[in-house]
Amino acid sequence: MHTPTLFEVVNRTLWQCLALGTAAVAFVPAARGMSTIGWWPYWLVIAPAVGLLVLHRQRVAAMAGVRIFFARRGEVAPLRTGRSHG
Fold it and tell me: Which DSSP letter does residue 35 get?
């Protein structure tokens, strides 16, 4: 039996939150308003989407043709696309 990694658990949870949040905002009018913690569409749709972008930031950057700079190590991640930048 495969034990899921932390990455897999967080990835699955964020996708589920995004799907359920999108459905809630689309079909429940009360989910489009404000509450004491803020604007519901942010917490139900935008926050999980940003979480997914952060989780998959290197893949997203490679698809966009952008190099990611790692400030901790002082190195630049290699570009994984076939494009040449000159």
Answer: E
